[in-house]
Design a protein that fits this description.
Blueprint lengths: L3 E6 L3 H12 L1 H8 L3 E7 L13 E3 L3 H4 L6 E4 L5 H12 L3 E4 L2 H18 L3 E2 L10 H8 L5 E7 L2 H13 L3 H11 L7 H4 L2 H15 L9 E2 L7 H9 L2 E11 L4 E11 L11 E8 L3 E8 L3 H18 L30 E11 L4 H11 L4 E6 L6 E8 L2 E2 H12 L9 E5 L5
Parallel strand pairs: 1-2, 1-4, 2-3, 4-5, 5-6, 8-10, 10-17
Antiparallel strand pairs: 7-9, 7-11, 9-10, 11-12, 13-15, 13-16, 13-17, 14-15
Helix pairs in contact: 1-12, 4-5, 5-10, 7-8, 13-14
């Protein structure tokens, strides 16, 4: 029985996990594919003691794997963008199918890569690029294919979720929890991609493209991080019956698509609110199925390898199927992609949580509420706390308002002499079906 020959580029955490899963479950995988899956070539700068590669050809040049004539499928696990893009395009030009876990590569260069794959009659699979071990892309593109997706919202970065969970449960400051996350290996030495939402924006780009049949448009995702969240915000959210989560949100409004990543107040009783620590979860609301929740490990060697190997299995099965008969890369045929516009953040409408500090003077609160009213912002609830170092903390919740109107109001409030210009705003989502 002819085997499917796999080459792997990158032997880090996910690469070693992929080798281990393929070897450990070789018998079951062969039964699923209909033939054995064989790793015949690995390209890596160094060996990894976490997996046994003694029976596999090793190259220090990863491009030797992409051009190996015996390879059927290249698995790209090197990370980064520029070299990974060159590697994948080289493999495609050499007639290789590609599996990748690289969300940045797909979000920023996926349109180009898919066109190259189409031109060369090969496939690109990328399940592991979003939410690690959760099979969210196949579920969205195939399992929910009968639905018009109304919206999706997800906790799609475990580092940020760990930080917010610890801030709430331990009453700890952001910097303190971030240092622990770095010590535990949950956050990089430079945590910008995680805590400022860039990682989640890459993943949201991919999810939205499959959900709504739109081209990948990473540059149009509104992105905001969690580094300004304080313990005061976390406690105030709890006072109003909410928890703060760092969400990626995509909505079809009928007038365009919202693509946004930012801290969000969500009601404590919602399913996403109960997702703690480094776990990931995505809610999808479809017109036929209603709200669904997908939950699991969003990172780690074998959870991510689970998705990588599932893609290898899928491509192994597809090797005998005509390219044009396979599932489209983004769930929709390329000539059926929508040109629906992506809305700017100013055109998004939602409720808001606001925190500001004002001087303890008569008439200041009246000035603030007048400016809000003049800009179509209606207050739902307001709490005025005890004076702290000459400033009065004020926390309020608003009714639904257009973001552009809220921005205009906050600019005017921040310009008041009696108001500290560091005003905190957090968007609120009820995640109603």
């Amino acid at each position: 029985m002819k085997s499917v020959k796999v080459g792997i580029a990158g032997l880090g955490t996910v690469g070693s996990g992929t080798v281990n899963v393929l070897k450990r479950n070789a018998r079951d995988i062969a039964r699923r594919v209909g033939c054995p899956i064989e790793i015949t070539h690995i390209g890596a700068r160094r060996d990894n003691a976490a997996c046994d590669t003694s029976d596999i050809r090793l190259s220090r040049d990863i491009f030797a794997v992409a051009t190996d004539p015996d390879i059927d499928i290249l698995v790209e696990l090197i990370g980064g963008i520029d070299t990974a893009r060159e590697l994948v395009l080289t493999a495609i030009k050499n007639g290789k199918h590609v599996v990748t876990a690289n969300k940045a590569l797909i979000a920023e260069h996926g349109n180009e890569i898919f066109q190259a794959a189409q031109d060369n009659g090969v496939d690109v699979a990328f399940e592991a690029s979003v939410a690690g071990g959760i099979p969210i892309l196949k579920s969205l593109g195939e399992g929910l294919a009968a639905n018009h997706v109304n919206w999706l919202a997800g906790i799609i970065n475990g580092t940020g979720n760990f930080i917010l969970t610890e801030m709430e449960e331990g009453g700890r400051a952001f910097d303190d929890v971030l240092a622990e996350a770095q010590a535990l290996g949950y956050a990089e030495a430079d945590p910008t991609f995680d805590v400022e939402g860039i990682d989640a924006a890459h993943k949201l780009t991919i999810l939205a493209s499959i959900a709504f049949g739109i081209p990948l448009q990473f540059s149009k995702v509104y992105t905001e991080g969690i580094s300004r969240i304080t313990t005061e915000d976390v406690a105030s959210a709890a006072h109003f019956g909410y928890r703060i989560k760092h969400l990626g949100i995509a909505k079809d409004t009928g007038n365009g698509i919202e693509l946004r990543v930012h801290p969000t107040l969500i009601p404590k009783e919602t399913m996403l609110s109960a997702v703690n620590g480094v776990m990931n979860a995505i809610m999808i609301d479809g017109d036929a199925v209603g709200p669904t929740l997908f939950y699991g490990a969003g990172a780690g060697a074998e959870p991510t390898a689970s998705a990588v190997v599932a893609d290898i299995i899928e491509l192994g099965r597809a090797l005998t199927v005509d390219h044009d008969e396979r599932v489209p890369y983004l769930g929709f045929h390329t000539d059926q992609m929508s040109d629906e516009p992506i809305l700017t953040i100013d055109d998004v409408s939602c409720s808001f949580y606001l925190r500001l500090h004002v001087q303890d003077k008569t008439g200041v609160l009246a000035d603030v509420t007048r400016i809000l009213s003049d800009n179509n912002v209606s207050i739902d609830a307001l709490v005025q706390r005890e004076v702290d170092q000459g400033l009065v903390p004020i926390v309020m919740m608003t009714h639904v308002v257009r973001e552009g109107d809220m921005s205009a109001a906050l600019a005017k409030i921040g310009a008041l002499e009696a108001v500290d210009s560091d005003i905190m705003r957090i968007r609120v989502e009820t995640l109603d079906a």
